[in-house]
Amino acid sequence: MKTATMKPGLWLIAGLIVSLCLAGCPQKKQDKDSGKITLGLGLDKGKSYTYEMNGTITIKQSMNGNEQTLPEMKMKMTQHMAVEKDKSPDFHVKARLEGFSMDIPGLPDEIKKKMDELYAAMNGAEFSFAVTPKGEIKSFKGLKEYMARLGKTMQGDPMSAQMFKSLEQYINDEQLLKQMGILYNFGASGRKLSPGETWDAKFDMPMAGADKPLALKIKYKLDQVKTVEGAKTAILTFDSKQSYGEQGMPFMEDLMKESAPNMSVKVFLHEFNMDGRIIMDLTNNWLKLAEPNSTIKLRVVISPPDQPTREVTQTVHSAVAMKLVK
């Protein structure tokens, strides 16, 4: 059975969610009377932003007492964003993805060539969305067209074509709109915050591959407000540790079955943990840096024909750094 790895389509979807969220997430404004920070959306109309994202993903797995760490995968991408200058109270944002690449060690040359074709199709993808001053996402467009581009590139590969056909059941404009809406709101809209203050936010987050939304409880902290390079800067941290028991992952099962169609495969999500920090420039009203990390623990039950059932546990750790470069 082939070892399951993160598909590039999923990498780009994950990067898209993070980058669109971070580039337009609720900014912090200084309350001159109290010295506290108040949540509010601070996109500047007519302003353009460019973010660079670099990420890594590491998979550790164990089967029959044997542990293995797969080679680290690396990804990078650049996103250009422009906020339309109009009279609408809402913010209309257009985004374009460029420079997507992914390094997966050990790929045969034939597969690497096909992957390079896929990356080329990803570059130049365009998306648009609208968000209210309160941080509510009103619309999102472009994912359907993006998926069609990837599907066209994969037409010569039956397995990949089937994968993208399955993927469309779980990732679409509607699902991404829900996830962006969750990520835009820190669960503290309108709250005045002092440095050191913490608060909790609870969400039901749709997740590609899961048979039901993930219940998340995230602890946020306004760690500090200080001057960095002449600009008043807010540093936030967040942390979440969730246990799900035996939550099914049918999409992951579909991918496994494509690699080994004669096997019975069941995939269960046990844990989903994340933490990280967000740095915001309050003086110039933009997000400077976001560094989310996540760890997913899975249990995979494999039943080959006429052979004993085997169980594999996987821990998938990802780290992303999204930095404003201009």
Write up this protein.
The chain has 326 residues and is an alpha+beta fold. The chain has one domain. 22% of the residues lie in helices and 48% in strands. The strands form two sheets. Strands 3, 4, 5, 6, 7, 8, 10, 11, 12, 13, 14 and 15 form a twelve-stranded antiparallel sheet that branches. Strands 1-2-9 form a three-stranded antiparallel sheet, with no helix packed on it. Helix 2 runs antiparallel to helix 3. The longest helix has 16 residues. The relative contact order is 0.17. The N terminus is likely disordered.
Q: Could you give a quick summary of the protein structure above?
A:
With 326 residues, this protein is α+β, with helices and mostly antiparallel strands.
Question: What's the helix and strand layout?
Answer:
Elements: H1 8-23, E1 27-30, E2 37-40, E3 48-63, E4 66-69, E5 73-83, E6 91-103, H2 109-122, E7 126-131, E8 137-141, H3 143-153, H4 158-167, H5 173-184, E9 192-193, E10 198-205, E11 214-228, E12 231-248, H6 250-259, E13 264-281, E14 286-303, E15 310-324
Helix pairs in contact: 1-5, 2-3, 3-4, 4-6
Supply database-style keywords.
326 residues, alpha+beta, twelve-stranded antiparallel β-sheet, three-stranded antiparallel β-sheet, 6 helices, 15 strands, 22% helix, 48% strand, globular, disordered N terminus
Radius of gyration: 21 Å
Class of secondary structure makeup: alpha+beta
Overall outline: globular
The assembly state of the depicted protein chains is single chain
> Can you write the helix and strand succession as a string?
HEEEEEEHEEHHHEEEEHEEE
The end-to-end span amounts to: 45 Å
Query: Mean pLDDT across all residues, rounded?
Result: 76
Uncertain spans: 1-13, 19-27
- What percentage of the residues does DSSP assign to strands (E)? over 45%
